[in-house]
């Protein structure tokens, strides 16, 4: 019989590492099992990280963590076929500690985070895949991995969006492709100076830029560019079931995005360094599985804990906060010597007190709002057409803004539909 751990965590992403650090610091025998050759080897994302949850573990983490740039500028653009309408926000405040967010690359960041778990006393076993759960009666009692049985008082599934462990524990069924977006991303190398010129940045400043519009061919989804030190993270994220319905690949949409004149200028002469693809859960509260059972908890993407509002896609901070809440629940359970479902029901209570379930509840209508195809075709076209009319000087008498708006709207969308969409935005966001 192998050593019995207090806790076995499956997955060394943000949720698993945060959970492991809190458990190991409290003196619990903790094992983190990661299937990648190293933590972060298989992980990708867009790249804007918001830090308060990590600051609670490591104040001033930016001094040692491999962050690329702090995000000082947020941009949002609506793209029609050949035009772009953009909002650009920057503030000096985001450039001062504790900063508001950072761009970063997961292969470096997850490795650093896992090393912090090791320093705290957790054992991190990489290149090891959890294949199944161990059971004692109706209670989860460990995992099977690499042909071995690894017993534990509690298993914390931090194994990401496709969590096989949550499924095997009966906490969720198959995820609907409607609740998932497919992300594809390229890392494009450019000299630091060029990045800073093109994005109007100085020193360590960085840009997070979100796009919606013509490139997604009316499918619910968006694109992003995040500036790193000497490369850009460029990608699209699109609802999986719609891709299948329309028989388009996310990669086709990424190519369309990169060809848009506004984007092509930013990427010109860049060298492709890396290509990756990953799924992201975006169904919000409605897709949340059961979060606990006897001997087991589920955290991060495995529990569907991300926030997608069209303007932001945040998951890493939700993963860290839920990983920490899971760890606090296990520490409490260890003190009581009780790892039953009843004892572990403390976990959702902690999540309800934190931003994790508060945000998911506030924005629970956002996922269905974001399925509206008009946001990805008619509205970007309408706004770009209106802006073109406003800024065109053709020697003819100018029309008033209202009549230009009516002209741009006509044939694309009825006034009542526009009003209804505005009301839905108000209710959902
Ligand atoms: C394209 C894209 C863009 C995104 N952009 C952002 C963004 O800008 N900002 C943001 O905050 N979030 C973003 N996200 C979401 C964010 O990446 C996730 O919410 C976050 O990574 C969740 O962390 P996690 O630890 O729960 O899961 P993951 O990061 O998925 O980690 C799970 C880990 O478990 C391991 N694993 C899985 N199964 C097993 C197994 N059976 N045995 C052993 N190990 C296993 C995996 O290898 C992985 O290391 C984005 C996601 C995508 C796909």
What does this structure look like?
The longest helix has 21 residues, at 316-336. Strand 18 and strand 19 (313-314) form a beta hairpin. Helix 14 packs antiparallel against helix 15. The protein folds into 3 domains: 5-65 and 106-173 and 289-353, FAD/NAD(P)-binding domain, CATH 3.50.50.60; 178-281, D-Amino Acid Oxidase, subunit A, domain 2 (D-Amino Acid Oxidase, Chain A, domain 2), CATH 3.30.9.10; 369-428, no CATH class. It is of the alpha+beta class and 429 residues long. It has helices spanning 14-25, 52-57, 106-120, 164-168, 192-198, 240-246, 250-259, 261-267, 316-336, 341-344, 346-353, 355-362, 366-369, 378-391, 401-409, 415-428, and strands spanning 5-10, 30-34, 48-49, 67-79, 84-90, 102-104, 123-126, 130-136, 139-145, 148-157, 180-189, 205-213, 221-227, 231-239, 271-281, 292-293, 296-298, 307-308, 313-314. Residues 10-16, 33-36, 42-43, 45-49, 129-130, 158-160, 164, 183, 185, 235, 237, 278, 280, 300-302, 306, 313-317, 319 line the site of flavin-adenine dinucleotide.
Q: Write the CATH architecture name of the largest domain.
A: 3-Layer(bba) Sandwich
- Please describe the biggest sheet, giving its number of strands, its sense, and whether it closes into a barrel: 9 strands, mixed
Number of strands: 19
Number of domains: 3
Radius of gyration: 23 Å
Percent helix range: 25-40%
Percentage beta strand: 25-35%
**Heteromolecules bound:** flavin-adenine dinucleotide
